[in-house]
């Protein structure tokens, strides 16, 4: 470790101890030295004994800074790793941090634009930031070309070395988890950190966010449900993003929405429709839809429209995952647990040798009590959580795309019920899912598949005779090669048989010559000739094997 890493590690340990997070160390023989060492550090007592463990963990991560806050936010989506009391607290982590100097941000922008003064491209550039977060901060301006209002997102200077240093320390800590916790290997801590590292590095590349925003905007072009601000890609780089400035009501400000006359029931239902449209129609969904990234347009409150920003994290599902997921939802709400179990096996989410009867019984045991509630109160997100947690007992591997989906669904559901507590998520989603499945397996699916494949078939049709001739020629060539290999194997077997026969004769001659030499020395040269003949026979046998 470098001196800087040692200082940082000391700060992390001190923070953890002052928040009493040593309670997380399991009481096992292997952890005895750690617990004794903790007792010796009497000058670092727990200063927050009045708070719950989850609250102390959240506050400690906030004190440790941006990298650890982001790590805690990511962990909050992995509810298979923590009890609800801790996962709920981690979900409350906010990465609002003090802004850095606006003039330094201006220098970053000018550097990204090729060391050209900001006035060359923008008017009314605001040195004071509009918003600030752990990775980047946002400034407002006006495009000189067309006078449109924009926001400029710029990565914090020198953030990369800080992130890399903290990531290395997190990796070191993760390697200790399997040694300290009895269930540590199942938690796969190193894989969790690697997943976090990838997500964080993706967020540092604003060109990726720009591309995601352009794709999402195209998917919902002219949609009354969702508006995605325009990205001005000519001005974007890895460290800077320029996009249209939007004005809207934060989705969490229910009082302001009601004051504006918003149709809250329709707004809540549209949130569900937007989510399922992204997942099942487009297979491209905004995976960071927390309330801070969602606004509602001031215009047409009777026909409300969402505004989505910050597309740094997106998710996607392949065709098979989408079909299995939709059928899982429908089977679950029809209480067809056998179907749910079979779908998990068919999808490959659990091993093919899983006992379907036992799996069905486990799903029924966990999920049947959910239906004691009215259907409108059943949580889609917790349905997924229960299904995945049950499946993990049957060796289901972590599916990153499903983890992102589960997190997003919990966000959407939480926002929807905050806007309209009577929201029946299943009533809103079921027609969409049933229609989508029918569209995937019915005549429309066949027609669509034919249209998609027809150009390829038309292109390849003139080549069919040549392809047919080529396949016949290759078949004959393959048959010739197989015959040749078969003959060679037969010849090898014959030579090996002859060699074994000659080795046997040679051994017999050598043994006979040796016995005669010992017992009948009066026979003269006969024993010697027998031994020479045996050695010669061996040499011939060895030559036959080469």
User: What is the 3D shape?
Assistant: elongated
Number of strands: 11
Mean pLDDT: 80
The major β-sheet equals: 5 strands, antiparallel
Beta strand %: 5-15%
Which regions have little confidence, pLDDT < 50, spanning 5+ residues?
A: none
Structural class: alpha+beta
Distance between the termini: 57 Å
The tally of helices reads 21
Rg value: 35 Å
What share of residues is helical? 55-70%
Pathway: Cofactor biosynthesis; ubiquinone biosynthesis [regulation]
Family: Belongs to the protein kinase superfamily. ADCK protein kinase family. Belongs to the ABC1 family. UbiB subfamily.
Function: Is probably a protein kinase regulator of UbiI activity which is involved in aerobic coenzyme Q (ubiquinone) biosynthesis.
Subcellular location: Cell membrane
Question: Which helices and strands, and how do they pair?
Answer:
Blueprint: H1 3-18, H2 32-40, H3 53-64, H4 66-76, H5 84-91, H6 102-112, E1 122-123, E2 131-132, E3 136-143, E4 149-155, H7 159-180, H8 184-187, H9 189-204, H10 206-219, E5 226-227, E6 240-244, E7 248-250, H11 254-259, H12 264-282, E8 285-286, E9 294-297, E10 306-308, E11 314-315, H13 319-333, H14 337-347, H15 356-367, H16 380-392, H17 400-419, H18 425-441, H19 443-460, H20 464-519, H21 526-545
Parallel strand pairs: 5-10
Antiparallel strand pairs: 1-3, 2-3, 3-4, 4-6, 7-9, 8-11, 9-10
Pathway: Cofactor biosynthesis; ubiquinone biosynthesis [regulation]
Membrane topology: Multi-pass membrane protein
Family: Belongs to the protein kinase superfamily. ADCK protein kinase family.
